[in-house]
Each structure stands twice: as C-alpha cells, then as structure tokens.
Here is the input.
Amino acid sequence: MSTITNINKVFDHRIRLGIMSILMVNEYTNFNMLKELSNLGRIFFDYPHTNQQPTNRPLFYILPHALLVIGLLLSIFINIVKFKQFDIAIILMALFSVVYIGGISLLSSYNQFIFPILPILLIWISYTLNNYVIFKINLFSLKK
Here is the structure.
C-alpha cells in the first residue's frame, strides 16, 4: 500500500495535497489568498471547479480573457498614476467594476458572472487607452 493512501481521507485529493504542501512550505502564503487567486482564475479563464474531465472549452476563453486581464491591469495602473485627470464618472465605473469582480470572486466563481460587467469594463478600458496611451506605428522605417 502506498503512503498516499494511508493519509487521512480528507486530504486524499491531489489538489488538496498540493495546496496543503504549498501552505506548509511557504510561511507567507495563506489559504484565503490561494482561494481568491483560484477563484479569479475560474472567473476569467474558466478553470474547472472540481476534478471533472478536462475539455477544450477553456481554450476558447483564454485569448480574449487574457486580453481583458491585460487591459484591466493597464487601466488600473493608468488610473492610479493619472487619478486627478479622470472624470468622476470613469473613476466610479472603475471602482464599481473592481468591487463587483472582488465580490463575485468571494461569493461564487463562475465564468458567466463576468458577462454582465463586461460592457462597463470595455468602456473603461477603451476610455483609458484612448485618452492616455499613444500608439505610434512607423511603416516607412523598414524601407530605409
């Protein structure tokens, strides 16, 4: 009989063993932080909740949601740096979006909960990138 089967039945799941080993090795890691990060991963990238059979469905969410996460992080950084230059409506939209995502990640972590807030997130990201980020593409520099 292997040593893993002799462990208490509460910890027989491999993911639970992985989480317990992370918590035992790293002193600065706590369970709530790991749970919050896994819930955010489930919301944005549709990770499975249990040990169900893996499918290809999360692959269709990864690219658009990765762009959304990058846009969110960039918008949050720009909002912090240029806080005084933003309209109060944009600041309230950003605050509402962050509180909504934080609350949903604490309560329940299903992918469909990101869809009601998606238009507000896209307006916030597009406003921030349109007003405070300049993209320059010089096509004639390659011909020299």
Observations:
- Residues 88 and 137 are 32 Å apart (CA to CA).
- The radius of gyration is 21 Å.
- The first helix runs from residue 14 to 25.
- Residues 9-142 form one domain.
